[in-house]
Structures are given as structure tokens and as C-alpha cells.
Amino acid sequence: MNVTMIGAGYVGLVSGACFAEFGANVTCLDIDRDKIDRLNQGKIPIYEPGLDDLVERHVRAERLSFSTDFGPAVGNADLVFIAVGTPARRGGGYADLTYVYAAARDIAKYLQGYTVIVDKSTVPVGTARQVARVVREEHPQADFDVASNPEFLREGAAISDFMHPDRVVIGVESERAEARLRELYRPLNLIEAPILVTGLESAELVKYASNAFLATKISFINEISTLCEQVGADVHAVAKGMGLDGRIGKKFLHAGPGYGGSCFPKDTLALARIAQEHGVSSRIVEAVIELNAAQKARMVSKIRKALGGNEAGKTLAVLGLTFKPETDDMRDAPALTILPALLEKGARIYAHDPQGIEEAKRELPGEIVYCADPYTAMEGADAVILMTEWNIYRGLDLKRVRSLMKGNVFIDLRNVYEPAQMRAQGFDYTCVGRPA
Fold this sequence. Notes:
By secondary structure, this protein is an alpha/beta fold. It folds into 3 domains: 2-198, Rossmann fold (3-Layer(aba) Sandwich), CATH 3.40.50; 208-289, Orthogonal Bundle (N-(1-d-carboxylethyl)-l-norvaline Dehydrogenase, domain 2); 295-430, Rossmann fold, CATH 3.40.50. 44% of the residues lie in helices and 14% in strands. The protein contains 17 helices and 14 strands. The strands form 3 sheets. The protein has a 6-stranded parallel beta sheet with strand order 3-2-1-4-5-6, with helices on both faces. The chain has a 6-stranded parallel beta sheet with strand order 11-10-9-12-13-14. The chain has a two-stranded parallel sheet with strand order 7-8. The termini are far apart.
């Protein structure tokens, strides 16, 4: 089966490599010639564990290739996936579909024979029908169907998620399109992965609704963590007690500085705007968005309080910059809100991140000093701020940390360490939603 991915970014590259693992012949197309040249040189533009090996193996086996030439890649394809960016538009949160419709026009020019065009990008309800309209306008004689096949990939675990999915959602309106997509995903029959076949609109909404619900769990436990601090409760115990209820589940009940990344921030905003466009209330989603912004601001206040009410002149070691571990993604990371606020008040920041430093240099103010290892960042620090729970920070040599620091303040925004342990090591320890 010949598969073409339009867009060689995160979703397109991971999906293309995984479809090659399924046995398909895959071409990843992108209009960014520099990106394609780098991919053809074996240089992967994103960090995702295992992706470089997967890409290299299938390029070598000639099942995966990269190109800017739409003609043969689209003309010979059985399925063409649109996997381009859908960023939030400035000033409102609506999903920007410019790249989706541009891809649809490019696809239409080169269609030959029956082809299934598949929306893989996260798109608002109704986009599949608009893509079909654009293709028909550009190529009235084309024989095609449009389908929706949303991705559910966690950054840092994307390959595992693709190969062992909780579910595959396929939105179609014809048996031909369904049959072709089922054939593509046939290798998953071996592990009995659930495949949900539904209408176009339902498939499009599944992605937004799923991400909004997960974001709701995060904002809920963060709000509970604030209450825990006021009443002397431990948010770890509360979350565990909740998670043991099978109807609730333990995942995403981890208090911290707020969610970020490429999906939750823009997808919650987009869902709220979709509801508004259709005259429907989305008060829960809107509250989740507000709570997440408030949580990031609250972390600034928490840090300031731990520093005695004033960060001016203080040297701060920041451990972790990306929005989560096992990715280099800085999009909407809490660090982007928290660190500029501290710098503005006169703090000096020395930062470390295993994968995110290059992205951070592009997104954060230039005064930050980036260090090659966490211990260098902590030399002479008045305080340590653990921002992202990378494994490298879970087993720090605490005696060494204490000896390197000038002060003894340790602010753990991910609740990695136990308060009693940190106090015993001589730290003035601050965490989120737990008695310190």
C-alpha cells in the first residue's frame, strides 16, 4: 500500500515511520526544502525517543522517503494524509486551517485514480467536508473520499502509542474508504486494538473532547492542590484516593505548574470556540483554560514566597524547561510564563534541560544562562526550581546539591521528592499541594 504524508513535522514524521513499520511504502512530503534535505541526510528535526532508529531502518529498507515533489507522491498514493500544523490563530484561539486547505489544493492537482484523503491534523468539526469541497473545486473529476483519522500520540511515547493504541478512530462516509483504512491498520488486529468507525463529525470531535477531558483532570487536581495547601491535606493522598476509583482512574491526577505542549492549550481553546460558533455553552472547558493560566501565575507567587518575598538579586537554578519529559517541545511550557516573570524582578537564572535548550534559547529571554549539566546550574544557587520531571532529576545526589548551593531553598513544582527526606538533607523545601 502506498501512503503519502503531507507534512513532515511531529505527527507526519512519526505516523509515516510507523506506517512504514506496518509494511506500507511511505513518502513524507513537505514544502520546507531545508527540512526535507536534513531528513534525507538522516537528521531528525525533533526529539522523540526511538524515532531516529525507526526512520533510519525504513529509509534503508526503502519503505520511507522524503520529498518536496507532490506529483508522483500524490499520484501514486492509495491514501494521502494531511498532517500539517493547525496552530491557534492570534486573538481568539480558533484553529488556523490555512495549511490544511493549502495541502488540499496541492493534493487535488495530482490525484490519479481512487484516493482516500485523510485528515490526520487536529481540526475543527466540519473540516473534512471543507477539504472535500476544496478538492472538488480544484479537480471536479477526481475520484476520492475524505476521511478523518485523528492522532492520539503523547510526546515522549509516540511510537509506543502508535503501535499499541488505546483505539483507532476512523471517520468515513463510504465503504471503500473504510476498507482502505482498515487494510492500512490491519497489523493492529494481532493485538486486537479497538477500531472505532464513525461519521466524519464524530471523529473530528473525539480528539478535541479527549484532550479537553484530560486537561480538565489536570486543572481539577491543581485546583484541589491549592485547597490542600490551605487545609493541611496532601494532594498525593487525595489523588491516590480518587484514582483508585475505576470510574476516575489515576492518570493525569498529578499536581504541578499547569499543562502545556502542542495539544492541550490550543485544543481546549479551539473546542471552546467551536462551541461558541454553534451557540453552545462550554463553561467547563473555559474554566479549565482559566485555571491553567492561574496555576502558572500561582507558581510565580509560590517561588517568590519561598525566596522570602523577593527574587531580586537571587541566583536560581532551574531544572527542566520543556513542558514534559522526553521531548524538546517548549510550546506553552510553564517555564515560558514563570521564568520571564522572575527575570523581570531581578533574578539570575541558570538552567538545564536534557533536550530542550536549543528550543528554549529561541523562546525565552536571552539573559538565561544554559548549563551542560544540572550540577553546574546549581553551583552557587540561592534556590533550585525543579520545573520538569526528567528522570535525570529524580535521583539527584542531594548531599552534592546541598554542598554546591549557596542557599538551601528547593522548590519542587513536580512533587518529585518527599518533604521529610528534603528536610533531613537540610533543604527549605517547597512543593505543590503537600505539607512541606
